[in-house]
Amino acid sequence: MLDSCKLKSACNLPFICNKKINTAGTSNAEVPLADPGMYQLDITLRRGQSLAARDRGGTSDPYVKFKIGGKEVFRSKIIHKNLNPVWEEKACILVDHLREPLYIKVFDYDFGLQDDFMGSAFLDLTQLELNRPTDVTLTLKDPHYPDHDLGIILLSVILTPKEGESRDVTMLMRKSWKRSSKFQTQSLRLSDLHRKSHLWRGIVSITLIEGRDLKAMDSNGLSDPYVKFRLGHQKYKSKIMPKTLNPQWREQFDFHLYEERGGIIDITAWDKDAGKRDDFIGRCQVDLSALSREQTHKLELQLEEGEGHLVLLVTLTASATVSISDLSVNSLEDQKEREEILKRYSPLRIFHNLKDVGFLQVKVIRAEGLMAADVTGKSDPFCVVELNNDRLLTHTVYKNLNPEWNKVFTFNIKDIHSVLEVTVYDEDRDRSADFLGKVAIPLLSIQNGEQKAYVLKNKQLTGPTKGVIYLEIDVIFNAVKASLRTLIPKEQKYIEEENRLSKQLLLRNFIRMKRCVMVLVNAAYYVNSCFDWDSPPRSLAAFVLFLFVVWNFELYMIPLVLLLLLTWNYFLIISGKDNRQRDTVVEDMLEDEEEEDDKDDKDSEKKGFINKIYAIQEVCVSVQNILDEVASFGERIKNTFNWTVPFLSWLAIVALCVFTVILYCIPLRYIVLVWGINKFTKKLRSPYAIDNNELLDFLSRVPSDVQVVQYQELKPDPSHSPYKRKKNNLG
Fold first, then answer.
1. Pairing of strands 419-426, 404-413
2. Of 393-397, 502-506, 594-598, 621-625, which has the strongest mean pLDDT?
3. Which of 140, 255, 620, 675 has the fewest other C-beta atoms within 10 Å?
């Protein structure tokens, strides 16, 4: 396997070698004896001249693909509206032999449509002199129209033999990549993952409105329909609507649009059946190439292989700010770019694109002391950075437990309450990638511009694993936009494997719900003890308070009391009498669950109570999820008043102040009248609006006790400090 340090020094192109290295050479013919077995081809894509116009305005948006043996090994950036583009991009490519020429193809990028072909050319690698830089001018041709003048492409190339290097580097195109946990298993080929890491060119927003006259699949003449969407590797699943042939979903899903995708969204409708396989209702497709962008399209689609229609709203919009770059290319360190970003999210631009809440920049610098996943005592680590459904990844650093990636990732923030997930994997030959560690960082907990060492955690994020990762993160956002977005439904993640039944998880959720219920029970006992005069001073005080409140009660006092409770807890915190306690019960349950999962992995032959539960798994999983939802609801309310997330608690204070003033100044009948008029006319004013409950949407952003434990930052071991280690080495 090629050592990364050796490769970097050979290429002398740290950014491109890290990001663009590909392998090629698919011929099965035997390599001649004179062939050293591996070559390194360094290419600089200079510019294009007099390229063909493919757009109506007489220009093109050209980009270039390099292929060897039918496989794409490099793709350039897009130069918009230019027939004489300047790229100055470098690529470092490894080839098995020189018989396959380098195939250069130029395309005109079209958003949401099939890209237009602008010409192609071949570079015969056998004609290149070894170890000598060569300037190459290639004339572009179209095989169907050989007489057309399509312009030229200018390259600089140098070919060097890599004698004695292992052919194992070709495994990069054959690897599979797998993220597995007890509740989610996902397997992808590494080539698919590389395609995932390509930056998307736009967003496809789909609103599933309703179904009409669907096919009855149950004996009662009805169905329990739900819908699945698929665009490439992206998948979503709607909620289940019980006992209806005319379901009203009102759900929204966002897909990334990649230029290599066919632009076809596959849609299937299913009937949910408990305890047996779901029934197929019908299918349909949406061809995105037929839809204009920046416009909402209402589609009524007939279900094939079934009955009925689905009603959708589909909108294609331009891509958000998402990029990968080398550490030397840093948006926020460029003063002009930084000012543009700050201006973009300034308080003066509150109502400009409400979905664009903020800007996130993540510097993935390095990791230290990683777990050795290979038999050689080394690992081949790469890093995956995720924000909601946005996923990007670094290159792989081979045979290294202290890798340096030095990559900068930028994301567009749609919800300031999102959690940044950074996961480190070991790339393995002919096997699934091994999990090395993970951190989850809420955006609101980030301290801008600070390079920090984050202790890597296990898959469940409940305890430490070996190694630390060094990150530097910056978040810029508009607080008003972020507050408004808090009151709408959260973005759903790509469809995942459904949770399987776990005895420990079921027990944990039951205990969590029991603790929430016990709070109410204890409150009821406390009130009843006042009536029983168990403590005369307390009962007397309660009696006086009761008379005073009832005699003077006004509706505005309800939000006022909640406001006072939030304020009281705030002053307790700033005075040092913090009543927030680390939930050791939940943490212990999470650790027990992890141990139980490990035990299940090692000993799959154990039988008993859990096997009996699997017989009614569907029902038990539903109970398990309901317990989790109920417990999380109670914990979120508690954590709002405990100032677990200060931004949300301040937002609650503002809302309660507004409600208190409204209830104090405006008679109740007028408030109810406005509320009723809004409810009755909502469907008339906006027939396809998605129903939501602002209070529940707000609470969905507050972390539960389980999430508080998972997002908790662990203290790094001082021995991991690079400065201390250097000092020790000098000593």
1. unpaired
2. 393-397
3. 675
Domain spanning 38-162 has what CATH number? 2.60.40.150
Closest alpha carbon to 703 in 657, 659, 642:
642
Q: How many CB atoms lie within 10 A of CB 39?
A: 22
With a CB cutoff of 8 Å and minimum separation 6, the contacts of 84 are 47, 48, 49, 50, 51
Beta carbons within 8 Å of 316's beta carbon, 6+ residues apart: 111, 112, 202, 203, 204, 205, 257, 288, 291, 292, 293, 294, 295
Q: How far apart are CA 664 and CA 555, in angstroms?
A: 8
Vertex 390: Cα angle to 387 and 396 (nearest 5): 90
**Nearest by Cα to 118 from 97, 158, 91, 145:** 145
How far is 264 from 267, CA to CA, in rounded Å?
Answer: 10
Taking the C-alpha atoms of residue 398 and residue 17, their distance in angstroms, rounded to an integer, is: 13
Averaged pLDDT for residues 465-471: 92
> What is the residue type of 704?
S
Flag whether pLDDT at 90 surpasses 70. Answer: yes
Tell me the percentage of the chain whose pLDDT exceeds 90.
19
Q: Is 362 exposed, middle or buried (0-12, 13-18, 19+ CB in 10 A)?
A: buried
Burial-class residue 11 by CB neighbours within 10 Å (0-12, 13-18, 19+).
buried
CATH of the structural domain 202-318, one choice from 2.40.50.140, 2.60.40.150, 1.10.10.10, 3.40.630.10 = 2.60.40.150
Q: Residue 555 pLDDT more than 90?
A: no
Give the model's pLDDT for residue 661.
93
Mean pLDDT of 644-653: 92
Give 3-state DSSP helix, strand, coil % of the chain, rounded to 5: 35, 30, 35
Distance (Å, rounded) from C-alpha 730 to C-alpha 547? 76
Q: In the prediction, which pLDDT does 578 show?
A: 62
Q: Answer for the pair 238, 249: CB distance below 8 angstroms, yes or no.
A: yes
**Pick the residue with more confidence: 722 or 443?**
443
As a dihedral over the C-alpha atoms of residue 331, residue 396, residue 418, residue 453, rounded to 10 degrees, the angle is -80
One fold for both 38-162 and 202-318?
yes
Q: In a 3-state reduction of DSSP, which class is residue 154?
A: strand
Residue 643, Cα to own-chain centre: how many angstroms? 26
Backbone angles phi, psi at 272, to 5 degrees: -75, 125
In this predicted structure, what is the pLDDT of residue 599? 46
Domain ranges of the chain: 38-162, 202-318, 335-486, 508-587+613-711
pLDDT interval class at 587 (50, 70, 90) = low
**Domain covering 335-486, topology:** Immunoglobulin-like (2.60.40)
How far is CA 484 from each of CA 353, 648, 651, 694, rounded to the nearest angstrom?
Answer: 12, 12, 10, 10
Q: How many CB atoms lie within 10 A of CB 650?
A: 15
Distances (CA, A) of 423 to 391, 434, 441, 527: 11, 11, 11, 49
Q: Give the whole-number percent of the chain exceeding pLDDT 70.
A: 77
The 10 Å Cβ neighbour count of residue 378 is 16
Of 237-241, 388-392, 462-466, 475-479, minimum mean pLDDT range = 388-392
For the cut 60, the answer to whether the pLDDT of residue 182 exceeds it is no
Instruction: Supply the angle between the helices 557-574 and 617-641 in degrees, to the nearest 10.
Output: 80
**Cβ–Cβ < 8 Å for 323, 409:** yes
Average pLDDT over residues 267-281: 85
- Tokens 């307390």 identify what position? 538
Looking at residue 200, the DSSP 8-state letter turns out to be: P
pLDDT band, very low/low/confident/very high, at 617 (cuts 50, 70, 90): low
CB atoms within 10 A of CB 225: 29
Instruction: Sheet with 419-426: list strands edge to edge.
Output: 323-326, 404-413, 358-368, 464-477, 450-457, 434-442, 419-426, 381-387, 390-393
Is 165 within 8 Å of 91 (Cβ atoms)?
Answer: no
- Kindly state the tokens that stand for 16: 């491109």
